[in-house]
Amino acid sequence: MKSSPFKVTNQKLSKEAAAAKKKRDISAAKSTKRKARKAQNQRIGQRSDSDLHHTKNGELKRVSIRNNRGNFGKGTRNE
User: Fold this and answer.
1) CA-CA distance, 45 to 66, in Å (whole number)?
2) CA end-to-end span of the chain
3) Residue 69 sits in which domain range?
């Protein structure tokens, strides 16, 4: 069983680039800031009708899935 549902092969990366991306992704997921956010989300609890959004000032608010994953109308291409 794979640990992630995302396939690196969809991006058509070379083996070296895929390995580098995997290393970057794992280090980002294990960062102190990311671990704290995950723990906070688990304490609050997720609902099927909304996402928990961490704002830049550290606050947490519940927003629609469409807005949170679509970068509030700006799209995700330039994130």
Assistant:
1) 18
2) 30
3) 46-79
